[in-house]
Amino acid sequence: MDDRLDKIQDPALLNEELYKVYKGYQENWAAKAIENEDFYLGAQWTASERQILESNNQSPIVVNVILPAVEQAIALLTTNRPRFSSTAREDSDIKVGKLFADLLTYVWDESLGNVQLKRNIRDYYVKGRGAALCYVDQFGDYGKGEVCVKGIDPLTVYVDPNAKDIFCRDAAHMLISAIYTRDEIRRIYPDVDFTGMKTSVDDVKYTERDIPTDYLHTKYRIIDRYTKLRVPFYHVYNPMLGVEKVMEDEEFQQYLQQPVIVQITQQGQQIVVDEEKVQEALQMIQQLGEVFHYTMNPETQQPEPVPGPETEDQTAIPGSTVQLQVITIEQVIQAGEIAVRTIVENRILRVLTIGEKLYYQGIIKGLEEYPIVLLINRHSGNPYGISDVEVVKEMQRYVNKIRSLIIAHASNSTNVKVLVNRGSVDKTEFEREWSKAGTAVLEVDMELGQPQVVGLSPLPNELYKNEADARKDIQECLGIYALMQGDAGQAPSTYKGTVALDEYGQRRIRSKKDDIEAFLNFLAKILVQLIQSTYTEYKALRVVRPNNIEETVKVNYTVVDDVSGAVKKLNDITVGKYDVVVVSGSMLPSNRWAQFEYYMMMYEKGLIDQMEVLKKSEVVDTEGVLERMDIIRQLQQQLEQAQQEIERLSGDIQTKDREISHMQKRVELEKFKTDIKSTSTEARAASSIYSARLTDQLKIAKLEEKAKNKPQGKNNAKK
Fold first, then answer.
1. What is the C-alpha separation between 293 and 311, in angstroms, rounded?
2. At what angle do helices 388-413 and 461-478 cross, to 10 degrees?
3. Does the global pTM surpass 0.90?
4. CB under 8 Å to 116, separation ≥6 — which residues?
5. How confident is the model over 359-385, as pLDDT tens digits?
6. What are the tens digits of pLDDT across the range 388-400?
């Protein structure tokens, strides 16, 4: 087959041949997928079985256990929208790397991702394979392009049957083929020319569904082929900036001509490759020339650049001469400062034909993997998965047959059988009168024999148990139990016991969760590549956080440096490599009462804050509550500060009052001391005077006494 296809040079003809070959391999799986979908929707009796039941006056009733179980599984797996986490592979891209989680959230919301995912999971359960397509809407965002994702019918996807990978990454080709009307094609591809196109008819075979045939519109088959090619690229690693990049030939040739500055000073030579610094250096060359030096400004005491070498200026700062040389990246690469090697990378060739006529052919920019992502159920080494409906189909038929028997028995029990002798009654009149309600008089000939009423034997309880067991087996195969669907009869008597069983029941479906998360991770990887090649201009987008708080994200916007005038691009998402993963378990449900109780316990112990508790509650205006609580908290802080200030001022006033009182007492004491000292001084002065007077009197008295005691003779002799 490969030799024959390799010889085909016409891309349109190759599309048609690949479609025929891949369709032949897929026919058996497609027939089962259609049959399983009809069975899932209720067409569970074959035509012959229905005819036999109706001939026996039995109703071909369907007790569809599969449909509610699958719908419950879909509801569990898509309870919450997926949350993405992104990290950069290089340290220089860490800040930008965090933006990709917001960008993927934006793409997911704009594409109605939850609706698309429900379709993928339903096809995964029912048909055995889900399919999603990542593409760029060229007319979105006013012609700038929007990255989108949508679920597509897996029956329209034709994959290389030799693919072994679970995502068919090793497939030689992947095709999407479907029939479209002329109006639909004109709406999708406005510039299409229908000249020379061949019309087609819908060749999908339906089993039980009554699909009306449309004969009013002209239809064409569109074959959208994706082929993986090995294309040469240039891997550039710049150790001076710590940046590596993969470039195509045209981009690499432009990169080689980018200017680079060689700065030569007394300390040595330095190569400047940073774009912002290069622009600043080019402006200095325009203003000062390639050689300049620095002098000290006497007014500002700051060094200023001056044209020419320092040898011509006596006021120059010694050793400040700078020489700038302009070279190109190519010269730096030749010098071995930047490493370049030729590599081969995957790229996707897209060939689109309409009505066997080539409409478009080209390589999708920046895309390394197929934009078609498959979600294969029970992967067995080929692109054709086995659905869960196929596994439980016979058990569902068993349930239907048991229920049909029970209804038939109930119908027969309400219609009594009577045995009478032949010719003893008029059979027609007897049946008419016997079927009437109320009192009836029936004339019979007792000589020919008395009529006997025959009753049916009751059905054994084991039959009802068999139906219940079969329903349980179907639910176990699908990973959905009665308790998870709200069956109160299966719930324990305690609240926490019910919560625990609900959590244990989800363990069975976590295997499906792992498949879906791997599918979403691969989908996110492709979306990141499309985002980098599509969102190359300034874009502002609004995303809604899981806590319903809106945030505006800006990417690829430019700013102008006020000093140098250089233009700098911020949040540039077009460069770098990023890893994006889905937060595990983010889509699964959780018991809201148990979770809220758990968060309240952690909040009371001080392990988390109030915001985390509100996120897990059902409060609609979470942002408003947080804002009001923040205002209240600020007012409380201000009130506490005011109270503390009042207390401080009150203490200061009391301290000052005490100081004034003590000061007044000291003044009174000093005044009292002064009075006492004055009195004491006067008393001491009076005492001194008194003592002096007493001394004088004593002296006088002594003199007088001495004069009296003096002998007279002597006095006379003197005379």
1. 9
2. 160
3. no
4. 132, 149, 150, 151
5. 999 999 889 999 999 999 999 899 999
6. 999 999 999 999 9
